[in-house]
């Protein structure tokens, strides 16, 4: 303001303002600052809880709650906020726990939270959201097994089927049942 007053006193016009930056019409709308801060806090809470629970091997007890912050972000703000929360949580877990844990969170909890939040934002009923979330969770389990198989260079699904067959065979033997099909006839071939 002082510079403008000095320029007016000197008789010259103030310099023109800089031209506005070009806006990309295809760019997604930005979220308000409060939404971004809330997404960051939810992501930090989720990432730290997931990291500590997998570190101390109590993730089986808290596994149902890992999708809640993503659903909360969708319910409070929008699906874009839920997406941002999920991506931020995955990036945080990538730094804290490595790529495998980050992908496991994304496949097992993040995608299910995104599905639930997006469908509830659209006003879908429970009859649609719960089966859709179950299908996404099943696909996430298979994706997690595929990534684990690729990293370990071992067919984890065949190992899982073999172990389940052995367990069922042992249970049948303990209750007096007869031996059923062999594993190569079931699913492992």
Give the topology:
Layout: H1 2-10, H2 33-55, H3 59-62, H4 68-76, H5 79-96, H6 99-121, H7 126-152, H8 156-174, H9 183-186
Helix pairs in contact: 2-5, 4-5, 4-6, 5-6, 6-7
Structural description of this entry:
This protein is an all-alpha fold and 189 residues long. It folds into two domains: 32-154, no CATH class; 155-189, no CATH class. Helix content is 72%, strand content 0%. It is built from nine helices and no strands. The protein has helices at residues 2-10, 33-55, 59-62, 68-76, 79-96, 99-121, 126-152, 156-174, 183-186.
Assembly of the depicted chains = single chain
Shape: elongated
Q: List SSEs in N-to-C order.
A: HHHHHHHHH
Tally of domains: 2
Structural class: mainly alpha
Q: In angstroms, what is the radius of gyration?
A: 26 Å
Poorly predicted runs are none
How many extended strands?
0
Question: Sheet bearing the most strands, described?
Answer: none
Number of helices: 9
- Strand content bin: under 5%
Mean pLDDT across all amino acids: 82
Distance between the termini: 81 Å
* Helicity level: over 70%
Can you give keywords for this protein?
2 domains; 72% helix; 189 residues; single chain; 9 helices; elongated; mainly alpha
């Amino acid at each position: 303001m002082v510079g403008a007053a000095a320029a007016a006193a000197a008789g010259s016009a103030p310099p023109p303002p800089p031209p506005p930056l070009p806006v990309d019409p295809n760019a997604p709308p930005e979220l308000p600052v409060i939404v971004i801060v809330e997404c960051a806090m939810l992501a930090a809470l989720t990432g730290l809880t997931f990291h500590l629970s997998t570190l101390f091997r109590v993730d089986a007890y808290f596994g149902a709650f890992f999708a809640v912050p993503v659903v909360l972000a969708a319910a409070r703000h929008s699906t874009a906020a839920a997406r941002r929360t999920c991506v931020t949580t995955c990036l945080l877990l990538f730094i804290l726990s490595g790529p495998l844990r980050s992908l496991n969170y994304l496949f097992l909890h993040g995608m299910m939270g995104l599905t639930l939040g997006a469908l509830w934002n659209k006003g879908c009923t429970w009859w649609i959201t719960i089966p859709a979330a179950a299908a996404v969770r099943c696909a996430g389990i298979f994706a997690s097994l595929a990534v684990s198989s690729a990293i370990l260079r071992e067919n984890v699904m065949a190992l899982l089927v073999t172990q389940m067959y052995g367990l069922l065979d042992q249970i049948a033997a303990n209750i007096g049942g007869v031996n059923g099909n062999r594993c190569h006839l079931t699913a492992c071939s």
